[in-house]
């Protein structure tokens, strides 16, 4: 299975001087096609920073981050944005749906930004909405959808196209357990179809959908459970 995400010795320091915070203190992690890795750890341990750096929304202070074989740390802002759009799908805590766009338009947006013609983008967006069981809501605006429906629109947007890397930060949020399980099923299906994923969660039941779990503490991987990947190292202790 090919490697989709390869992080090596990644350090991320926020702020400067007295206000400096080391959010990631040397994280190495390999995620392959077909693999979903759960990321757990207390508040402030670096989970969101890990996701943001993995997906090129934030840059590492040092270390290497490769997505589909491309070193994103070395890319300029425009090329990094291209990798984000083409290869990375995100599902965040705050769903970031655009209120003025319908469900289908929200899902089509990353494709259109990437130059896919509007008609084709809409077709693919609707196909993704069918997958999440929301075809009938395609022309509705976010404010007319329930929380669970909005979550599924966000998932459809993350999974549309051929994204190789799916990054999910508490994707089930405040959903009831039935809807939450449906969202996890969708994520798992997408991974099984050949993507790689990182899933930040506080919920051990959701982590159970992953192939392995890494535990972060103070910006380091404390331990990795499940089908062990020897490359998930604690840099400081290695
Ligand atoms: N933009 C920023 N500027 C300064 N410090 C930051 C910034 N982003 C994160 N931090 C700090 O980096 C550390 C790691 O934060 P991060 O959000 O990655 O943790 P987390 O594990 O996702 O926490 P939570 O579970 O509460 O979301 C924290 O100490 C946080 O305060």
**Residue-averaged pLDDT:** 87
Tertiary shape: globular
Largest sheet: 6 strands, mixed
Name given to the CATH homologous superfamily: P-loop containing nucleotide triphosphate hydrolases
What CATH architecture do you see? 3-Layer(aba) Sandwich
Oligomer: single chain
- The tally of structural domains comes to 1
Hetero compounds: adenosine-5'-triphosphate
Any idea of the CATH topology?
Answer: Rossmann fold
Amino-to-carboxy terminus distance: 26 Å
**CATH class category label:** Alpha Beta
Provide the β-strand percentage band.
Answer: 25-35%
Specify the helix fraction band: 25-40%
Low-confidence stretches: 233-238
Looking across the biggest beta sheet, what order are the strands in?
Answer: 6-7-8-3-9-10
Number of helices: 7
**What is the H/E string?**
EEEHEEHEHHHEHEHEE
How many β strands by DSSP?
10
Structural class: alpha/beta
What is Rg? 17 Å
Organism: Myceligenerans crystallogenes
GO molecular function, one term: ATP binding
InterPro entries: AAA+_ATPase, ABC_transporter-like_ATP-bd, ABC_transporter-like_CS, ABC_transpr_LolD-like, MacB-like_ATP-bd, P-loop_NTPase
Keywords: ATP-binding, Nucleotide-binding, Transport
């Amino acid at each position: 299975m090919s490697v989709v995400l390869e992080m090596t010795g990644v350090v991320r320091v926020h702020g400067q001087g007295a206000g400096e915070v080391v959010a990631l203190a040397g994280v190495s992690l390999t995620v392959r096609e077909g693999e979903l890795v759960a990321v757990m750890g207390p508040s402030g341990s670096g989970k969101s920073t890990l996701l943001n750096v993995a997906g090129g929304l934030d840059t590492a202070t040092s270390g290497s981050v490769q997505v589909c074989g491309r070193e994103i740390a070395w890319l300029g802002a425009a090329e990094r944005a291209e990798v984000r759009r083409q290869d990375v799908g995100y599902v965040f805590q705050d769903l970031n749906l655009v209120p003025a766009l319908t469900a289908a338009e929200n899902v089509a947006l990353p494709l259109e930004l990437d130059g896919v013609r509007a008609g084709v983008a809409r077709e693919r967006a609707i196909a993704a909405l069918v997958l999440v069981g929301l075809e009938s809501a395609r022309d509705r605006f976010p404010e007319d959808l329930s929380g669970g429906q909005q979550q599924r629109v966000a998932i459809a947007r993350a999974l549309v196209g051929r994204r190789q890397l799916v990054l999910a930060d508490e994707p089930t949020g405040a959903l009831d357990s039935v809807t939450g399980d449906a969202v996890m099923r969708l994520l798992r299906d997408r991974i099984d179809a050949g993507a790689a994923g990182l899933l930040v969660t506080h919920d051990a039941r959701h982590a159970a959908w992953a192939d392995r779990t890494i535990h972060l503490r103070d910006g380091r991987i404390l331990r990795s459970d499940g089908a062990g990947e020897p490359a998930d190292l604690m840099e400081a202790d290695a």
